[in-house]
Amino acid sequence: MKIAIASDGKDLKSNVSTQAGRSPYILVFENKEILEVIKNPFAKGSGGAGFSVAYMLAEKNVDKFIAGKIGINMQSAFKEKGIKFEEENNKKINEII
């Protein structure tokens, strides 16, 4: 199962970001191993970040997304793409993996 986590940093000691669509980084894991560290191209700019991140992760065949807070529009996009999601607050990436 591929899991993507919104992150404030590039490594396992980073905090889970509370800003899902605008998180600075997205870490992608499979079997507890980091596959990819993505500098979120949608972190800054105009609206639609949640949809854009959801579509990007669907292209990467991600099965589940975790962030501190996931907005309603982003949740909608994940449902459309068949990606599970959950909110995890005040945790480090290594606590989830």
Helix-strand category: alpha/beta
Number of separate strands: 5
Strands across the major sheet, in which order?
3-2-1-4-5
* Helix share bin: 25-40%
Quaternary state reads single chain
What would the average pLDDT be, to the nearest integer?
Answer: 95
Based on the structure given, which CATH architecture is correct? 2-Layer Sandwich
CATH class placement = Alpha Beta
Q: What's the number of helices?
A: 3
The parts where pLDDT drops under 50 for at least 5 residues are none
| N/C terminus separation | 12 Å
Number of domains: 1
The value of Rg in angstroms is 12 Å
Major sheet characteristics: 5 strands, mixed
Question: Any descriptors?
Answer:
26% helix; globular; Nucleotidyltransferase, domain 5; 5-stranded mixed beta sheet; 97 residues; alpha/beta
Short characterization:
By secondary structure, this protein is an alpha/beta fold. 26% of the residues lie in helices and 28% in strands. It has one domain (2-96): Dinitrogenase iron-molybdenum cofactor biosynthesis domain (Nucleotidyltransferase, domain 5, 2-Layer Sandwich).
Explain what you see.
By secondary structure, the protein is an alpha/beta fold. It contains three helices and five strands; from the N terminus they run E-E-E-H-E-H-E-H. Strand 2 (25-30) and strand 3 (33-39) form a beta hairpin. Helix 1 (49-59) runs parallel beside helix 2. The two termini are 12 Å apart.
